[in-house]
């Protein structure tokens, strides 16, 4: 079973953090180990997942998309229908509950698009914990609505002005806060990244996606799906969907990264596709970096995928071949964003749109599959301004009529 | 071995080590080299040079900004090692490199240690490489005679102090506070107790760093440990005076003199 007790997925994972944090990580790993076996903890978590988050989320047969792609039957795992609108809440509730059990009164979090920040602030509000969120200044401008939501929920949002002022730097700053306040503070990491036990813990909290989907699919089709598809930034929704299928060797797993403006430019975030092993934010995984190991600036239209690292378990799954990783560009994601909106009446998060874009783009190669599940990790309300702006800018205006105020119309 | 003999020599004189940190390549390589020689001249016993990393998560704003400036000026691992080779011809002071693990990993552990030893590096401080992940680098360092310097902190458990003491070489870098590097108003009150705790486990010299910038803080710290480490205080001068290297050298020189003086006074007071 991976990871081992030091958090290693073969050569990936581990703990690369300042000594100050090592005792806290040891304590956290122990406490988590105990609680994950404690029935009352699981019962309490399940109670909130059902009654507060709205689980189980539906597994929806996307008929129109299936016809459009013309191959496999496509089912969508509807994480967009959870409270707060993305899978992030599965993890923040689990960790906030853990923080409370550990007697911590203050929680901190990093956020890119603001979805994890909102989910952390939500869980903190419900459990009466003090919450501070680190967010790159540039992201705060891009996602001002989420900043407002976090403030409404009683969280303080600290702008991060170092480095590229995005998710990577927000994570640095959250780690620095934790190093300083480790005695009374719990750090809620938002993805399957960071030092052990986070990649494992976040995977376990997100694995409910795959457990439900597996059961729902078998109920609907009487067999297992042939293929799973999910977007990968840090990779938590993907691991959450994949993990319960890990031993089902016939089920293929596909992760889709952000190719930004293209893999041949320096403006992308395709870590597993173009990166090489490295250490960032406490674990060894794939990393986008220069020849000396300095972390590269990255780009994606989707703030949630705009990250130079990736969870160590994905590096492990790529290396051992259990999962395959591909990438799609900003433009392809934008197109899928519109296609899903119009075909299914579902506006997906730009992150999730990457998974759909891969399927639409590769429909000829996917005819070998009879069925697949795509993880619809979040809803796209947060992205409509970004999309409207981008469409205008990218002059896809030739095909669509776009106004910043009005809806996006695609001419068929 | 230079580290060991430096501490030994200082001890025989009843002095405490002054370890001075600057970021290599800030404001530029030429000034860094001059600063090293100036600091040695004015009493720095060991010099720690930061090989800058894009994401220095154990550092506060002063050293973060310094790292960014150095990287913008083109500092990288090869340029760093070349600089060390040149310095080694001009100075006998022990030279430490402080960097983050990804730069070592990316360069290749074996190649890094070999090239560092050849250039004249005496010790290696990697704040994001704890005991659990350091065994391969440590054995390479042992082979090449480079000391891998471990850090211990106020949060370190007795068990971790014991395990670290078994492996440590050169000296132990005691982190005075729970936090990142930077200038603080007061010396952390937990520092003395921590140093005493660590002393129970190891005969190695214990040097205290993080939050020490004034001669008074240096004096207070020197009273209960074997060396003090000053970084952000010097780097802040580089930030302010980087444009005029003449003034910078003079100011840093004076600052080092005053720090060294305060550690001597304390040392002579406590000498039996």
What does this structure look like?
- The complex is a heterodimer of chains A (about 400) and B (about 270).
- By secondary structure, chain A is an alpha/beta fold.
- Chain A is built from 16 helices and 16 strands.
- Chain A is globular, with a radius of gyration of 20 Å.
- Residues about 400-410 of chain A have low confidence and may be disordered.
- By secondary structure, chain B is α/β, with parallel strands linked by helices.
- Chain B has a single domain (about 1-265), classed as Alpha-Beta Barrel (TIM Barrel), CATH 3.20.20.
- Helix content of chain B is about 50%, strand content about 15%.
- Chain B contains twelve helices and nine strands.
- Chain B is globular and about 45 Å long.
- Classes of the chains: A alpha/beta (about 400), B alpha/beta (about 270).
- The interface between A and B is large, with 39 and 41 residues.
Tally of alpha and pi helices of chain A: 16
Question: Residue-averaged pLDDT of chain B, rounded?
Answer: 95
Helix content of chain A: 40-55%
Q: How would you characterize the largest beta sheet of chain B? A: 9 strands, parallel
| Strand fraction of chain A | 15-25%
Which stretches of chain B are poorly predicted, pLDDT < 50 over at least 5 residues? none
Oligomer: heterodimer
Strand content of chain B: 5-15%
Task: Tell me the strand order in the biggest sheet of chain B.
Answer: 5-4-3-2-1-9-8-7-6
Straight-line distance between termini of chain A: 49 Å
CATH class descriptor name of chain B: Alpha Beta
């Amino acid at each position: 079973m991976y990871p081992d007790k030091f958090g290693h997925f073969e050569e990936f994972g581990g703990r690369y953090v300042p000594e100050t944090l090592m005792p806290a990580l040891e304590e956290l790993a122990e406490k988590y180990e105990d609680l994950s076996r404690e029935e009352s903890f699981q019962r309490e978590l399940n109670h909130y997942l059902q009654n507060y988050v709205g689980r189980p989320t539906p597994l929806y047969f996307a008929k129109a998309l299936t016809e459009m792609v013309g191959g496999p039957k496509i089912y969508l795992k509807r994480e967009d229908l959870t409270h707060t609108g993305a899978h992030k809440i599965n993890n923040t509730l689990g960790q906030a509950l853990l923080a409370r059990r550990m007697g911590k009164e203050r929680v901190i979090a990093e956020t890119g698009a603001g979805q994890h920040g909102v989910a952390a602030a939500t869980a903190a509000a419900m459990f009466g914990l003090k919450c501070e969120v680190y967010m790159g200044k540039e992201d705060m401008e891009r996602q001002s609505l989420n900043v407002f939501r976090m403030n409404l929920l009683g969280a303080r949002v600290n702008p991060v002005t170092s480095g590229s002022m995005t998710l990577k730097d927000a994570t640095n700053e959250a780690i620095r806060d934790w190093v300083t306040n480790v005695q009374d503070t719990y750090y809620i990491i938002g993805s399957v990244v960071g030092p052990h036990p986070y990649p494992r813990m976040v995977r376990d909290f997100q694995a409910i996606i795959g457990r439900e989907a597996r059961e729902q699919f078998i109920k609907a089709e009487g067999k297992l799906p042939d293929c799973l598809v999910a977007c990968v930034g840090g990779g938590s929704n993907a691991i959450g969907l994949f993990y319960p299928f890990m031993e089902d060797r016939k089920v293929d797993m596909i992760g889709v990264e952000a190719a930004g403006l293209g893999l041949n430019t320096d403006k992308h975030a395709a870590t597993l596709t173009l990166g090489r092993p490295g250490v960032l934010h406490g674990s060894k995984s794939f990393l986008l970096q220069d020849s000396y190991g300095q972390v590269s600036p990255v780009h994606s239209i989707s703030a949630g995928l705009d990250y130079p690292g990736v969870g160590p378990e994905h590096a492990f799954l790529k290396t051992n071949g259990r999962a395959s990783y591909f990438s799609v560009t900003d433009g392809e994601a934008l197109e899928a964003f519109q296609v899903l909106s119009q075909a299914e009446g579902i506006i997906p998060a730009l992150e999730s749109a990457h998974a759909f874009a891969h399927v639409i783009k590769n429909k000829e190669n996917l005819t070998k599959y009879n069925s697949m599940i795509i993880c619809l990790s979040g809803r796209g309300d947060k992205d409509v301004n970004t999309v409207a702006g981008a469409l205008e800018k990218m002059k896809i205006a030739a095909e669509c009529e776009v106004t910043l105020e009005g809806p996006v119309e695609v001419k068929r | 071995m230079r580290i060991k003999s430096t501490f030994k020599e200082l001890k025989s004189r009843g002095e405490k080590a002054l370890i001075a940190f600057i970021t290599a390549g800030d404001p530029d390589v030429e000034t860094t080299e001059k600063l090293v020689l100036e600091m040695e001249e004015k009493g720095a016993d060991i010099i720690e040079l930061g090989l800058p990393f894009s994401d220095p998560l154990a550092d506060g704003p002063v050293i973060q900004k310094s790292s960014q400036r150095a990287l913008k000026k083109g500092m990288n691992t090869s340029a760093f090692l070349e600089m060390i080779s040149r310095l080694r011809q001009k100075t006998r002071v022990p030279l430490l490199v402080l960097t983050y693990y990804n730069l070592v990993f990316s360069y290749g552990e074996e190649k890094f240690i070999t090239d560092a030893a050849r250039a004249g590096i005496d010790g290696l401080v990697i704040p994001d490489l704890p005991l659990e992940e350091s065994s391969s680098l440590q054995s390479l360092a042992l082979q090449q005679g480079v000391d891998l310097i471990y850090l211990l902190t106020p949060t370190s458990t007795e068990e971790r102090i014991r395990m670290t003491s078994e492996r440590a070489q050169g000296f132990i870098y005691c982190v005075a506070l729970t936090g990142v590097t930077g200038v603080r108003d007061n010396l952390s009150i937990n520092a003395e107790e921590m140093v005493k705790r660590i002393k129970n486990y190891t005969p190695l010299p214990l040097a205290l760093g993080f939050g020490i910038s004034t001669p008074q803080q240096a004096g207070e710290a020197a009273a209960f440990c074997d060396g003090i480490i000053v970084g952000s205080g010097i780097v802040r001068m580089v930030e302010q005076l980087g444009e005029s290297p003449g003034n910078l050298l003079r100011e840093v020189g004076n600052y080092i003199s005053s720090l060294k003086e305060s550690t001597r006074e304390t040392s002579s007071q406590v000498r039996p």
